[in-house]
Each structure stands twice: as structure tokens, then as C-alpha cells.
Design a protein that fits this description.
8 helices, Peptide chain release factor 1, 2 domains, methylation, alpha+beta
């Protein structure tokens, strides 16, 4: 795997020259694309330098070991450090998901369980919002439909990061959150104190940077307008400001009603539609390219049960990675990093195994 480093180092140097050219930055989309690749390669350059430095230090220590006991004592420690650095570099060389550096649109939808499911959807939204705050990310509610008890029947949130480095990207961290999240607890509506099981679905979409990235023919869109409604179905708007957009070639439907004007709802709807079409296109590419090993744990829909939140036992369990901990209260307050890291580690290992096939 390390044989590929030389070409990557050359690409890094070329990108550095391009990014120093002011003309490149007149095209923001191009500058963003080059910047992301440069940030990704910078991690590899630093990792390679670390391996080279430790290799030189270890070689020097071995040469001096027979003459100086202090150098001999350093050899085992340097060997461990070198092995760790090589493993880190090996993981950096795994081909990354091209969408890792992107921001995301996170959709949460109540499932089976009625009001309890909607309340759990709201708990998940709070969990992700707190996690985003801990990472320094910004969140923005694009659309939402509340339930009678204050939960969410469905909600779409934009999560924006602050780094060009794909390893630090929002999508890189959240892409494995897609699927069915199951909750076991006593609902607020339960008078007998019995534990109920319900679920909410999560979908994580990489957000499109520029509208031009995804070509949408206006003739392929069916746009309907209607009056927006609130919890229980009551009308909350006297004008037809809500918008439903159907992309005829894919059958993807997006409905927006949060904004007061039809134009604003249409703009928000197109933003979500572009993200869904991008995800749809990527799924088609993955399906068509049989030579590309897909992640063993990534899902682009809400059909797979990925995690259980057991409140009576204060237990969180991820069914894909085997991760289990008894700090659910902390997780629901945004302490998601260990859970997310278990998914990232499993994905990296599956990609490493694929490279060895």
C-alpha cells in the first residue's frame, strides 16, 4: 500500500501551487474541491513524515545500541512508535468516500409507536444537535412537522462543519447514523409503568455545495402547492405557501411548509431534493460498480435497525459494530463520539480487508 505514497506527495505539491494562484479562487466550487483534496493529502504527508522520522531514529538507535545502553533502551519504544505510525498511515491511505468532507442534511422521522416515537425523534434531534455543538458545527432546521405532544413526526436539519479536511467532515462522522433507531422505555403516556418499544428512522444525506453539481431539468419536476398545517392537521396558513416537489425520473418527493412564503419553501425543497438526488446517484454508482467494495455498515435508507436505546438499563447498543455501553444518559446529551468511532473503525477495517483481497 505504501508504494502509492510517492504519487500522492507529488499531487500534494501540485495542489499547493494551484491553491496559491489567485485565479483559482475566482471559482469557489473549484477552490473548495481542491482545498478538500489538499487537506486530505496534508494528513498523509504529515503521516509519511512521521514514519520516515521514526524509521531514521530507530535505525540510528540500533546502530548505536552496542556502544551506548541508553540507545539500546530506546529501540523497543521506537519500534512500538513506528508500528503505530505505520498503522495510522496505512489507514490514511484507505480510499476515502468522496463525500466525507461535505456538510449534511439529517432527516429524522417518527416510526412505529405514535406519540412516543415522535418524542423519541425529538430526543434524537437533541442528541445530534448537542453532538454538533461539541464539534463546533452549526445546525439549521430546514423543515419540521411537530406532533401533538411536542415531538417530531419528521424533521430535516442542515449540519455545517468548519473544516476542509475529509477526516473532520460532518458526513464522515454522521454517515453511519442512517437507519432505524429503536428505543425501549416507559412512555410519558403510559399510566401502568410498562416498558414500550418504538422506533425512529434517520437518513443522512451529503449536502450539495453548488446547485450546478446536480443537474435537474425543470421539465422533470412536478410542483404542487397547498396550505400548510400544524399538529393534528389544523391549518396554520391561509395561503397556499406549502410546496411539494416530485422529481419524476427518480420518484423522489420533497414537501416543505415551514417558511411563510411559497418561494422560500420551494428553495428549501430544492436544497433537500438536490441532496437526495446526489445520494441516489451515488447509490446507483455503487450498485453498478461491482469491483468497488461497499461499506459493511453504511445504509442510505431507514430500513436497517442499527441501534437500541434502553432507558431502564441506561444502555446503548450498536447492532452492527457490537458496541455497548451503560451511559445512555450521556449519549443522549451529545456524548456520541465513542459510538460513532466504533462504526468508523469497523468501516476502515472492512476497507483494509478489501484492499488485501
Amino acid at each position: 500500500m505504501f508504494e502509492s505514497i510517492h504519487g500522492l506527495l507529488e499531487e500534494h505539491a501540485e495542489l499547493q501551487l494551484k491553491l496559491s494562484d489567485p485565479a483559482v479562487h475566482t471559482d469557489q466550487a473549484l477552490a473548495r474541491k481542491l482545498g478538500r483534496r489538499y487537506a486530505e493529502l496534508s494528513s498523509i504527508v504529515e503521516g509519511n513524515s512521521r514514519v520516515q522520522q521514526l524509521s531514521d531514529d530507530l535505525e540510528a538507535a540500533r546502530e548505536m545500541a552496542s556502544e551506548d545502553p541508553e540507545f539500546a533502551a530506546e529501540v523497543p519504544e521506537l519500534e512500538v512508535q513506528l508500528a503505530t505510525a505505520q498503522e495510522k498511515l496505512r489507514r490514511l491511505l484507505i480510499p476515502r468516500d468522496p463525500d466525507d468532507a461535505r456538510d449534511v442534511i439529517l432527516e429524522v422521522k417518527a416510526g412505529e409507536g405514535g406519540d412516543e416515537s415522535a418524542l423519541f425523534a425529538a430526543d434524537l434531534v437533541r442528541m445530534y444537535t448537542r453532538y454538533a455543538e461539541s464539534k463546533g458545527w452549526k445546525t439549521e432546521v430546514i423543515s419540521s412537522t411537530e406532533s401533538d405532544l411536542g415531538g417530531y413526526k419528521d424533521i430535516s436539519i442542515a449540519v455545517k462543519g468548519r473544516s476542509n479536511d475529509p477526516a473532520e467532515g460532518v458526513y464522515a462522522s454522521l454517515k453511519f447514523e442512517g437507519g432505524v433507531h429503536r428505543v425501549q422505555r416507559v412512555p410519558v403516556t403510559e399510566s401502568q409503568g410498562r416498558i414500550h418499544t418504538s422506533a425512529a428512522g434517520v437518513l443522512v444525506l451529503p449536502e450539495v455545495d453548488e446547485p450546478e453539481e446536480v443537474e435537474i431539468n425543470q421539465n422533470d419536476l412536478k410542483i404542487d402547492v397547498y396550505r400548510s398545517s400544524g399538529p393534528g392537521g389544523q391549518s396554520v396558513n391561509t395561503t397556499d405557501s406549502a410546496v411539494r416537489i416530485t422529481h419524476l425520473p427518480t420518484g423522489i418527493v420533497v414537501a416543505m411548509q415551514n417558511e411563510k412564503s411559497q418561494l422560500q419553501n420551494r428553495e428549501a425543497g430544492m436544497r433537500v431534493l438536490r441532496a437526495r438526488i446526489l445520494a441516489h446517484q451515488q447509490a446507483e454508482i455503487d450498485a453498478a460498480n461491482s469491483a468497488q467494495r461497499k461499506s459493511q455498515i453504511r445504509t442510505m435508507d431507514r430500513s436497517e435497525r442499527i441501534r437500541t436505546y434502553n432507558f431502564p438499563e441506561n444502555r446503548i447498543a450498536d447492532h452492527r459494530t457490537g458496541y455497548k455501553a451503560y451511559n445512555l444518559d450521556a449519549v443522549m446529551n451529545g456524548d456520541l463520539e465513542p459510538v460513532i468511532h466504533s462504526a468508523i473503525e469497523m468501516d476502515e477495517q472492512s476497507r483494509l480487508d478489501a484492499l488485501g483481497d
